[in-house]
Amino acid sequence: MKVDIWSDIRCPFCYIGKRKFENALENFPHKKDVEVIWHSFQLDPNLQTQPEKDTIDYFTEVKGVSREQALQMFNGAKKMAEESGIELKPETSVLANSEKSHQLLQFAKTKSLGNEMKEALFIAHFKEAKNIDDIDTLVEIANVVGLDKAETKEVLTSGKFLQAVKQDELAAQKIGVRGVPFFVFSNKYGVSGAQAEETFLEILQKTWEETEEPKLSYY
Questions:
Q1: Cα separation of 12 and 82, whole Å?
Q2: Where residue 195 falls among pLDDT bands split at 50, 70, 90?
Q3: How many CB atoms lie within 10 A of CB 196?
Q4: Which of 23, 48, 51, 56 has CA atoms 20 to 30 A from the CA of 96?
Q5: Is residue 216 in a domain?
Q6: What are phi and psi of 11, to 5 degrees?
Q7: Residues of the domain holding 185
């Protein structure tokens, strides 16, 4: 059974959705038969990387809310994350365009390290306050995951996997994805948002029964 997931490294709810889905998958009897494929999606492809700019200030400007309201929203996301077993520090994250990190994800997928890279990028952005638009930083992250430094730097410098990022975004557009995270189960069911673990488990079971479960044959 295949599960395709579109998400952005800059999206806290994508990280929360990832963990909620994974927690549900741990309780799914057929988890070893589930293939998870990560796809690229940029919520703000035109974002200018500004490491020196305070993330909360940027959020208040873009969303038109007060600093107090922004902190309340950030704290709400942090609480949701804690309930799923992850730590978020969105207020300290570096304001950075995510395109290069998506290229790195695409490269990692060719080495069967897509899930490991996705997790590492989320941690780098939301916990370690690293610049996910900086090539040297991304090379170090890639090396920890298990990718070759020299090859990774060449890939990111050349933009070799930029087209793969664009193809993912085009595919999302074709199926009507307007926000992330977005999950597609065996090309049958689409689920938007960081749903409850119980919801993910229910959809996994339903999809399995309808597409994978062997049917009895009568003679």
A1: 12
A2: very high
A3: 12
A4: 23
A5: no
A6: -100, 115
A7: 2-211
Q: How far apart are CA 54 and CA 26, in angstroms?
A: 37
Does any domain span residue 218? no
- Is residue 36 within 8 A of residue 147, CB to CB? The reply is no
Per the CB < 8 A criterion, the answer to whether 143 and 149 are in contact is yes
Q: How confident is the model at residue 212 (pLDDT cuts 50, 70, 90)?
A: confident
pLDDT, tens digit (0-9, with 9 covering 90-100), for 3-43: 999 999 999 999 999 999 999 999 999 999 999 999 999 99
Token reading at 132:
């996910």
What is the DSSP code (8-state) at residue 186?
A: T
136-156 burial, b at 16+ Cβ within 10 Å, e below that, comes to ebbbebbeebebeeeebeebb
pLDDT at 28: 98
pTM of the predicted model, to two decimals?
0.94
List of residues 6+ apart from 195 with CB closer than 8 A: 17, 20
Q: Long-range contacts of range 75-79, CB-CB < 8 Å, 24 or more positions apart?
A: 77/12, 77/13, 77/16
Q: Quickly state the pLDDT bin for 215 (edges 50, 70, 90).
A: low
Domains: count for the chain: 1
Integer Cα distance of 180 and 8 in angstroms: 7
Q: CATH number, domain at 199?
A: 3.40.30.10
Using pLDDT thresholds of 50, 70 and 90, give the confidence band for residue 217: very low
157, part of any domain: yes
